[in-house]
Amino acid sequence: MVDLLSVTDLTVGFATENGTARVLDHVSFAMRPGEIMGLVGESGCGKTTLARAILGVLPNNAAIASGSISFAQTDLLGRDTAAIRGRDITFIPQDPFGSFSPLFSVGDQIGELMRWKSPDRAPGDTGYTRTRRRADAARIQAALAAVQLPDIERLLRKYPHELSGGQRQRVMVAMALLPEPKLVIADEPTTALDVTIQAQILKLLRQLATERGASVLFTTHDLGTAWEICDRVTVMYAGQEAETAPVADFFARPRHPYTAALLDSLPTQGAALLGIPGDVPSPFAPPPGCRFHPRCPRATDLCRASHNETAEPAPGHFVRCHHPNEWPIQDGGPAS
Amino acid sequence: MRLLALALRRFLWMPPTLLGLTLIVFSVSHVIPSDPARVLAGENASIEQVETLRRKFGLDQPLPVQFVRYVSDVVGGNMGISLYTQRPVATDLIERLPATFELALFAIALAIMLGLPLGVVSALMRNSWLDQIVRLVTIGGLAMAAFWLAILLQLLFSMQWNLTPVQGRIDGWGPDPITGFYTVDALIRGDLDTFLTALRYLFLPMMTLAIPAMATIVRFTRAGVLNVMNSPFVFYQAAMGLPRRVVIWKYILRAALIGTLTQIGLVFGNLLAGAVVVETVFSWPGLGTYAYNSILQSDYNAIMGFTLFTGSVFIGMNLLVDIAQAVLDPRGR
After folding, report:
1. Which of A146, A163, A205, A253 is the most buried (most CB within 10 A)?
2. Taking CB atoms and an 8 Å cutoff, what residues of chain B touch A117?
3. CB atoms within 10 A of CB A270
4. Where are the domains of chain A?
5. What's the pLDDT tens digit per position in A167-190?
6. Site from B2, B124, B128, B233 to mutate, A interface, most A CB atoms within 10 angstroms
7. How far is the C-alpha of B237 from the C-alpha of B251, rounded, in Å?
8. Inter-chain residue contact B242 with A105, CB threshold 8 Å
9. Burial of B160 (0-12, 13-18, 19+ CB in 10 A)
10. Using CA atoms in the order A276, A282, A285, A287, what is the torsion angle rounded to 10 degrees?
11. CB of A85 within 8 Å of any CB in chain B?
């Protein structure tokens, strides 16, 4: 199948007072149409920067040093992606509280989005005809009903501060799907919400995206969340992708020592909480060789000296490690 | 509906505020070590003449009695007789009002029309050469004393370039009054020559008032825009590819305006106070020159009248600002 999105060798640096921080370092991964991909990693591993790089909204002090991002066979780098953003690629933010303007009603803000990003809008059209407005109003009604929001007419007249966090994030999900995108980038969309509401929103997002055939790139630091809704998972460490695998394979047969350590650190009943010894390396002076070697129980001289390339030891299972875990190759189904 | 309730609530606060203002104004003008009856009677008047005047204007009564009488007079629209012009203060004020309002409204309009966009552009192009120039000019505009700025403008525009009159409001008589604004009246009557003349007279005093007002508006708009630009909602709108001009001029500007609006209310009050100096320098026949002459003549009824009037305008402006803010920001309602 042709990839919907492919990121190749992407390197992004941030200019700061202390020098250049290499937040992404030769990252490569690909997404297929209709799949839900989880981008997992600790804070500062570069997942949010990767999401912003794909959207084309990196901060001003960021510079793309190398690599390419290709979406639906077009190169996204070095061009203005404003027409693609919000139409073919939409966004669900981490913070549903601040991501609405407090001064305009919810209906105004959804209407503004549809005015510019409705599937009916021809490129370059700056007007907003009554026909389009009416069609969009029907779309908005349907989308808000789909995210299970009650009393839509009243909701549209309300201001963001009159909605609960869960309601706001439901509206965000609806807004992300309204332009009928091919790809939704969701940057930790449930971090700011209560646990019970998190699960509802995630299920909704998965269900609606699947129904509409949209891919979702979903960043999270929570492996449990990734397990719940993703088809495939990419784990990132210190600005590099460490391992990419189908979700069942990822959890049952992790190959990268970092993935294994992450899974071991998940709390289980009756067991002591395990952490990963050591600290995440500084993006200003990353260790030579493998980024993970200072914390890796299996590190050898090879790891300390030599840069590691991504390999595909089993079909669809990519790992960036000199000494990955070996698992017997199985066909299909998860090892239960 | 909630907006109306808010407006009504604020409105009900106006009378007590005005009463407090009257008390302050009254007290201040009565501690001035000067005897108004003496001033009025003139240097050669006899003691009997002075005392007769004192009784005539009720100046022999205890201060609280005088205050109560003053308040009840003011409520009835009577602000007393000007000791200097020998006419009712209220009549004097109303007659001179259009000149000052024409000046102040043109100045604030210019300050807003230039200040808002400059503030936004300066924030968007932060630290560019344009931003640096705008910052230099605004700091200069705030630091310069009004009378000095006025004299500089006169030297440059009138003496050096001969573009504008040095002082005054019009050649000869103004157009027949409709609004009392010479520029507007001339336009309504289709008299383009008079309009241009009035505009040339208006230009320098207007600029003198507008430059510091604009500087304040630019600074607050710039700070407001910079603050709002970092909001998550601005990032969200950029990530969703909304046109930049819509994000800036609709969403960012409206949020930044909330802070600027308070300042515009205060600036307009300052403008009326600043009119005293500016009108005097430019011999502009408005409330400012009236207040200036009243002070020189110890004409305390006129001073109180001017202060009370300016204070009322200030309070009225604050009421408008409160309502405008409630319109802009649903959270405060």
Report:
1. A205
2. 240-242
3. 4
4. 5-97+183-234
5. 999 999 999 999 999 999 999 888
6. B233
7. 9
8. no
9. exposed
10. 10
11. yes
* Sole residue written with tokens 């149409």: A33
pLDDT in tens, A279-304: 788 888 888 888 898 888 888 888 88
Q: What is the pLDDT of residue A104?
A: 94
Contact flag B233-A175 (C-beta cutoff 8 Å) = no
B-chain CB neighbours of A87 within 8 Å are 241
- The pLDDT of residue A336: 40
Strand pairing partners for B312? Answer: none
B23 reaches A (C-beta below 8 A): no
ipTM over 0.85: yes
**Structure token pair of residue A103:** 């001064």
Domains with residue ranges and CATH for chain B: 96-332 (1.10.3720.10)
**Identity of residue B127:** N
Chain A environment of B232 (Cβ under 8 Å): 93, 95, 97-99
Using a CB–CB cutoff of 8 Å, tell me whether A103 touches chain B.
yes
Check the CA dihedral A122-A127-A131-A136 and report its sign.
positive
Pick the CATH number of A5-97+183-234 from 3.90.1210.10, 3.30.365.10, 3.40.50.300, 3.10.20.30: 3.40.50.300
B239 touches chain A (CB under 8 A): yes
Helices B253-281 and B192-229 sit at what angle, rounded to 10 degrees?
140
> CA-to-CA distance for A278 and A283, rounded, in angstroms?
15
Which backbone phi and psi does A136 adopt, to 5 degrees?
Answer: -65, -40
Angle formed by the axes of helices B300-328 and B287-296, to 10°? 140
CA distance B20 to B36: 24
